[in-house]
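for the writeup, i need someone to sanity check this before i put it in the appendix. the sequnce is what the collaborator sent (i think, or maybe the updated version? ugh). structure was predicted straight from it, no edits. if anything looks off just tell me and ill rerun, i have time this weekend
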Amino acid sequence: MDAKQHSRREFFARTARGAGAAALGGAVWAYLVHGQAHATPFALRPPGAIPESDFLSTCIKCGQCVADCPYDTLRLADVAAPVPIGTPYFEPREVPCYMCPDVPCVRACPSGALDPGLANVEASEMGLAVLLDRENCLSYRGLRCEICHRECPVQDRAITIENHPRGLSRHALFVPIVHSDACTGCGVCENVCPLPEPAIKVLPRELAQARPAEHYDFGWQTETPITQEYEPAPAAPEASSEDLDAGLDYLNEEIPR
């Protein structure tokens, strides 16, 4: 075999190896992208995000919502993120959503993945705060913590404080209660929790909340002819002081001493 033939054979061999490596790399990348398309549903999306299945098909991964976020809350997922590549998400423990009144991320979205009809940021449902660890929550252990309540942007609606006279400690407990109808999932409570690992965390609502029990009939919560016709028994009249004195005299006479 002369040098020219050897050179040609070596060229084709290298080309084949390169094509094989490229094909393998493409297969690996396709696997990663396919896996990311079905990634864990723990993603917290920007305010106004439409339902996740529609969001993934509508978001064009342009990053404009990320660029317009004034607090650097939002980030675009890379290949190592637990959400589909290129989609916007945020991690409350790092930087929560500070609920800008003008919602610049929504105004920046060109595709409709963030609902342009979101007029009030307090109506957004990015997730739902859940007190996951009561055993270590300082309020449940008897300390007057209440940081999550004090820092909540929707204070006294999304998180309220419930007073328990006694609990696991000798002190009265002032425990945080989350109300799903007002919680926006902004994550400020998770961000400010003073524990090394937050006792309260924001989860996507489909994970944090059960579906309504539509197959059960909560009759006492609805107006029906039966509930409308029901009238409680009239209250017994209060006893007068004369009636009480007469009763005591009767007992004194009947009970031997």
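The chain has two domains: 19-124, 127-209. Confidence is low (pLDDT under 50) at residues 27-39.
thx in advance!!
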